[in-house]
Amino acid sequence: MADGVITERSGLWTRRGAPPVMAHQHRHDDVELNVVREGRLRYLFGGSRVDVNAGDIALFWGTTPHRLVRPGTAELSDVLWLHVPLVTVLSWELSPAQLGGLLQPRPVVVPAAALDYDAATAVRRWHGDIGRGDHALAFLELQALVRRVLCSAAQDSPPTSPPEHLDAVMLMTRLIAERFRDPLTPAQVADASHLHPSYAMTVFRSVMGCTIGAYLVRCRVTEAQRLLASTRLSAAEVGHAAGFGSQSQFYDHFGRACGTTPARYRASIAGT
What positions does the domain HTH araC/xylS-type occupy (predicted)? Predict the structure, then answer.
């Protein structure tokens, strides 16, 4: 924790339930989707309060420090939650305008009814798809909903300026999304920004909340999780396919990120 902000690990997950109350702000490099079926969410994004009411969908990139607090009145809430790694969203090739809207330091909030789309049913399906390891099907439907949310928000809001240094950071994250399975180095990623390498690394950390090297590891761990859940590749084959240079490196980073071994992770997924 730095400056009272907890940096959380990236990963794909879903859940349904009441919102927790957070004692501290946190941040993550996932894209988060909230579907509020009943009740209300109240966030603090930096110093700004954001309410997400029943029937609303909230979509945001979690790199801005944020936390959930109790609404002004006590009420039961029923919320569907989904996190998807930013590297996955970048692979969808959203337009610059859509990316600019998504990567703002506040949530995009739209009423589900405005989309003519049963988002609650869709999220329940994703929960089942992801639990069975069928990430491809979940991602196709999720991509469609993300695009619908961003298009709806763009119709109701004036254009907004992207976060500072976004262009340079997006060049770097796009390169990582395309080549993290290769023996890519932080210096090679920094070169893609067209900035001085040391400055590029500073800019990346200021926007993403982690170093280029740490982000590369996150992407590789996320890919390893996907392969363990959706293929029959051996652990050695998964580590190689995900971009790790050696088996010891794979097991070390996977254990640090997931708190378990690849074999136990696969077994836990198979048992869901």
Answer: 170-268
